[in-house]
Amino acid sequence: MLDLTIIGAGPAGMTAALYALRSGLSVAIIEQGAPGGQLLKTEKIENYPGFVDGVLGMDLATNMFMQINAFENFKLINDTAKKISKNADNFTVNISIGTVDSKAVIVATGGYPKTLDIPGEKQFAGKGVSYCAICDGFFFKNKVVAVIGGGNTALEDAIYLASIAKEVYLIHRRNTFRGSQILVDKLKSYNNVHLVLEKVPVEIKGDTKVSEILVKDLKTNEITSMFVNGVFLAIGQIMNSEFVKDSLDTDGLGHIVVNEKMASVTSGIFACGDIITKNLRQVSTAVGDGAIAGQMAYEYISQL
Ligand code: NAP
Asked: Does 272 qualify as catalytic in the annotation?
């Protein structure tokens, strides 16, 4: 039996694995996509300490994975965790091709993008509607795009797209931003970025691809049309905690409640990264939580 199962290979899960492996534990990470999590959707991270000129999300993800993959006691299981069950003295995680048993479990599953649920959004997904600027921005070279949202993701997406697309419209429902001021200032320095404030999209239209977005002015209720080739949605995240909601404590937004040791209400199950209740969701905080979770899982297992 394994010592530790970690669910999710984002920065939190990979850091937890690093600490647990260095303490001598055998560790499996269950990850449904590629290792890296949200790092893979971020072009450049400028607020991760130690990188004066920033670091590419892809590079940081690759290096984090190479560091843990070098351990003999590590394995990556490319699958989706469906359920965690507590047995007499261990845990079973159900995945689609069977089960994984271990002495402790760390949940580091993060979230996935929220949808707006407006007409045309589903119809044009992959045909102009995107939830990942880094993945799809390339297809909009010299085209006109809209980014929806006012958080750090929307601001970073708009900055990224400003150097690819001809025009970028940032559509946000308020006139102040949830994201950092440093990103707002940077965004405003681009001549091809236009802020469309106190407005919300109400419909995405087109023929085979997106060609138009209808936006409603929240002060006047007037609806106007904007011609765009692409719509990038960055309106927040839904937590990947559905599979543990019956066994662990979650808040109203799906975040797992943990203590300062990253321990959940169930002894032996820890959580870290964006999935937990906390005030600041950053790569640096994910790495910090991950280190604590990995070390605390080691201490828990040592006392069994
Ligand atoms: P977020 O901070 O929750 O922001 C979501 C944005 O979308 C908000 O501006 C919100 O408007 C808007 N929004 C939500 N629902 C909407 C709707 N139905 N219609 C129109 N607009 C809607 O999400 P995020 O930007 O994805 O960031 C998630 C977390 O990751 C945050 O903690 C963020 O700081 C962090 N993050 C950090 C970095 C970085 O530091 N480099 C980069 C990316 C993300 P309101 O503001 O009016 O609520």
From this structure: no
Q: What's the CA-to-centroid distance between 149 and ligand 1, angstroms?
A: 6
Do residues 136 and 142 lie in contact, with contact meaning Cβ atoms separated by under 8 Å?
A: no
**CATH 3.40.20.10 applies to domain 2-112+237-302:** no
Q: Which of 304, 268, 248 is nearest to 4 (CA)?
A: 268
**Both tokens of residue 147?**
């980014």
CATH no., domain 115-233: 3.50.50.60
Provide φ and ψ at 29, rounded to 5°. -110, 130
> Whose alpha carbon is nearest atom 31 of ligand 1?
281
pLDDT tens digits, 165-187: 999 999 999 999 999 999 999 99
Instruction: Report the nearest-CA residue for atom 23 of ligand 1.
Output: 236
pTM score, whole prediction:
0.88
Residue 296's DSSP bridge partners are none
